[in-house]
Specification:
single chain, mainly alpha, Arc Repressor Mutant, subunit A, 2 domains, about 70% helix, elongated
């Protein structure tokens, strides 16, 4: 963007044109930004640099501006798809190790991806309109791009600052998601029963930010074995399993208090839910009813 403005303002566009090649760099930059943000970047430096090789290869062909932009657009679409896939992986991995993961809690990550997509699309329109705009219009385009890019970065800084468990979550999740276990125990049912009995005995599910590592410390088993047993016998990931226990407790309390008007939020918090929205979402997903609807059916 800055180089493009320099090309136009200084009048060097006719013999020095490099801006189009940066459309080939946008996709990889956004992708690796999110890999670093989610602490899922396990690639070596050399392997990451390979993704930017098309930028160098396109330099001799910048006179074919529209062709380079077409390839850049395709590249961005591919890398944005990879980014969306990465966010999905993070969500699934987090659900394997945390009991407090909520889809809404991850909405800011998707919002940031969308903001980058909008920025890329606007910039592509700007590049294609270059030959039809005067210098004042081009300056306005540059200003809009800069403000939008600044807004994205500020949004990222604020959200990352407000997500203290982000780094620990993805780092722990990688231990389960990316690493394979050489040999699993032969009887998952026995392990699952031990897990379930321990969690119920100590009411571990009532801890709002319970992780699979917390359970592993109490039981004395590896996190991979615990995750495997829950997946195999319960048909859940860790997040779904713990939330099912919380929902069961709320349902039991509603049965006990059916003669009085229940305080649903208090019951939810006592059972381990950390927000009203999370409680309502999980309860309806598991029962088909909202908490208030369910309480009226009793």
């Amino acid at each position: 963007m800055t180089t493009n403005f320099a090309e136009e303002a200084l009048g060097v566009r006719s013999y020095l044109l490099i801006t189009p090649v940066f459309t080939l760099a946008t996709g990889p930059l956004v992708y690796f930004l999110f890999k670093n943000l989610l602490h899922a970047n396990r690639d070596k430096q050399e392997r990451r640099l390979v993704h930017f090789l098309p930028v160098l290869l396109a330099l001799p062909f910048t006179e074919y501006t529209q062709l380079v932009i077409v390839f850049g657009t395709v590249s961005q679409l591919i890398y944005f798809a990879f980014t969306v896939q990465l966010v999905g992986l993070y969500q699934r991995a987090s659900a394997e190790i945390r009991a407090d993961v909520n889809t809404r809690d991850l909405q800011w990550i998707r919002t940031t991806v969308v903001m980058f997509v909008i920025f890329a699309l606007v910039d592509l329109v700007r590049l294609n309109m270059q030959t039809y705009n005067d210098i004042s219009t081009k300056a306005l385009w540059y200003f809009i791009d800069l403000v939008w890019l600044l807004a994205i970065n500020l949004y990222l800084v604020v959200k990352v600052h407000n997500q203290p468990h982000l780094e620990d979550s993805i780092t722990q999740a990688q231990e389960i998601t990316f690493n394979k276990v050489d040999k699993q125990p032969e009887d998952p049912t026995e392990i699952f029963n031990a897990i379930h009995n321990t969690i119920m005995q100590h009411y571990l599910y009532r801890q709002p930010r319970l992780t699979i590592h917390d359970v592993a410390e109490v039981i004395g088993l590896g996190v991979k074995d615990i995750s495997w047993a829950i997946n195999t016998c319960g048909g859940y990931n860790f997040n779904e399993y713990i939330n099912s226990l919380r929902v069961d407790e709320v349902k039991q309390q509603l049965q006990c208090e059916k003669q009085i008007t229940p305080n649903l939020l208090a019951l939810a918090m006592n059972a381990g839910f950390n927000s009203k929205s999370s409680f309502n979402s999980v309860f309806k997903k598991q029962t088909g009813y909202t908490p208030s609807q369910f309480s009226k059916l009793i």
